[in-house]
Amino acid sequence: MITIKDFKTEKATWCPGCGDFGVLNALQKAAVNLGIHPDDIVVVSGIGCSGKISQHFGGYGFHSLHGRSLPVAQAVKLANKDLTVIAAGGDGDGFGIGMGHFIHAMRRNVDITYVVMDNHIYGLTTGQASPTSDVGFNTKTSPYGTVEAPIHPIQLALAQECGFVAQGFSGNIKQLTQLIEKAIWHKGFSFVNVFSPCVTFNKVNTYDFYKQELVNLDEDDTYDPHDRSAALARVAGRESMVVGLIYEDTGRPSFEDATYGFPEEAIAKRDWSLSQADLAELSATFR
Amino acid sequence: MITIKDFKTEKATWCPGCGDFGVLNALQKAAVNLGIHPDDIVVVSGIGCSGKISQHFGGYGFHSLHGRSLPVAQAVKLANKDLTVIAAGGDGDGFGIGMGHFIHAMRRNVDITYVVMDNHIYGLTTGQASPTSDVGFNTKTSPYGTVEAPIHPIQLALAQECGFVAQGFSGNIKQLTQLIEKAIWHKGFSFVNVFSPCVTFNKVNTYDFYKQELVNLDEDDTYDPHDRSAALARVAGRESMVVGLIYEDTGRPSFEDATYGFPEEAIAKRDWSLSQADLAELSATFR
Amino acid sequence: MKDIGWKVGGKQGEGIDSTGEIYALAMHRLGYFVFTYRHFMSLIKGGHTNYKIRVADDMVRHHGDDTHILIAFDQATVDHNWGELVDGAIVIYDQSSFQATPPTQANVHLFGVPLTDIARETGGPIMKNMVAIGVTAAINEISPEEFRPIVEDKFSRKGQKVVDSNMEALRRGHAYYQEHFQVHFPVPAKPVLAAGVDHLYASGNQATAFGALAGGCRLLAAYPITPATEIMYWVLKYFPKYGGVVLQAEDEIAAINMAIGANFAGARAMTSTSGPGFSLMMEALGLAGMSETPVVIVDVQRSGPSTGLPTKTEQSDLNEALYGTHGEIQRIVLTPRTVEECFLFMADAFNLAERYQCPVIVLSDLYLGMSYQSIAGFPLDRVRIDRGKLVADADLAGLSPFQYQRYDPSVPDGISPRALPGQPNGRYTALGNEHNGIGLEVEDLETRVVQVEKRARKLSGFQHDSGISVDGDAHARFALIGFGSTYGVLEEARARLATEGVIVKHIHFSRVGPFPAEPLHEAMAGVDRALVVELNSTGQLASLIRQHAGDHDKLASCLKYNGDPILCKEIITRCHEVFPAEVLNA
Amino acid sequence: MKDIGWKVGGKQGEGIDSTGEIYALAMHRLGYFVFTYRHFMSLIKGGHTNYKIRVADDMVRHHGDDTHILIAFDQATVDHNWGELVDGAIVIYDQSSFQATPPTQANVHLFGVPLTDIARETGGPIMKNMVAIGVTAAINEISPEEFRPIVEDKFSRKGQKVVDSNMEALRRGHAYYQEHFQVHFPVPAKPVLAAGVDHLYASGNQATAFGALAGGCRLLAAYPITPATEIMYWVLKYFPKYGGVVLQAEDEIAAINMAIGANFAGARAMTSTSGPGFSLMMEALGLAGMSETPVVIVDVQRSGPSTGLPTKTEQSDLNEALYGTHGEIQRIVLTPRTVEECFLFMADAFNLAERYQCPVIVLSDLYLGMSYQSIAGFPLDRVRIDRGKLVADADLAGLSPFQYQRYDPSVPDGISPRALPGQPNGRYTALGNEHNGIGLEVEDLETRVVQVEKRARKLSGFQHDSGISVDGDAHARFALIGFGSTYGVLEEARARLATEGVIVKHIHFSRVGPFPAEPLHEAMAGVDRALVVELNSTGQLASLIRQHAGDHDKLASCLKYNGDPILCKEIITRCHEVFPAEVLNA
Ligand SMILES: Cc1ncc(C[n+]2csc(CCOP(=O)(O)OP(=O)(O)O)c2C)c(N)n1
Ligand SMILES: Cc1ncc(C[n+]2csc(CCOP(=O)(O)OP(=O)(O)O)c2C)c(N)n1
Ligand code: SF4
Ligand code: SF4
Ligand SMILES: [Mg+2]
Ligand SMILES: [Mg+2]
Question: How far apart are the first and last CA of chain B?
Answer without folding.
Answer: 57
